[in-house]
Amino acid sequence: MNVKEIAAVLGARVAVGAEYLDRHIDCAGACFLQSVILARGDAGMLLVTGQLTPQTIHACSLSDVTTVVLVRDSELTAEAHRLAINQGMVVLIVPDTLYDTCGKLYSAGLPGLRI
User: Fold this and answer.
1) How far is the C-alpha of 3 from the C-alpha of 26, rounded, in Å?
2) What is the CB neighbour count within 10 angstroms for residue 4?
3) What is the pLDDT of residues 37-96, one digit of tens each?
């Protein structure tokens, strides 16, 4: 699945990285903790989270996670926005909860991260 298809499934708006919507996504994971991203994150993974801080961007970068879905219509801080652009990330924003967003992705056929 590519990011453009994922955005359509979720009814997401693109906050950062519209030029990377053709990026392929292999699986998804959901968490709020940077330690989980560092331990389990991987290239080709989509992260679903409600907390996209500069620290989360750094953790994603270290784990090669380049696409993030931010839930509950949360907004990026100016610093997180700048870091996401500099890292070549895609950030999608959705109105749904973490649970509902994960359900939509699973129903669309995107597998979860194998732990």
Assistant:
1) 10
2) 15
3) 666 667 888 999 998 889 889 888 888 899 999 999 999 999 999 999 999 999 999 999
51-56 contact pairs (CB < 8 A, 24+)? 52/76, 52/80, 52/84, 52/91, 53/77, 53/80, 54/79, 54/80, 54/83, 56/80
- Which of 25, 23, 3 has its CA nearest to residue 94? 3
Identity at 111, one-letter amino acid code: P
Helix (H, G, I), strand (E, B) or coil at 75: coil
- Residue 38 in contact with residue 59, Cβ under 8 Å? yes
Residues 46-78: b if buried by 16+ CB within 10 A, e if exposed: bbbbeebebebbbbbbebebbbbbbbeeeebee
Q: Name the DSSP letter for residue 18.
A: G
Helix axes 3-10, 98-107, angle to 10 degrees: 120
Report residue 5 as tokens.
């298809």
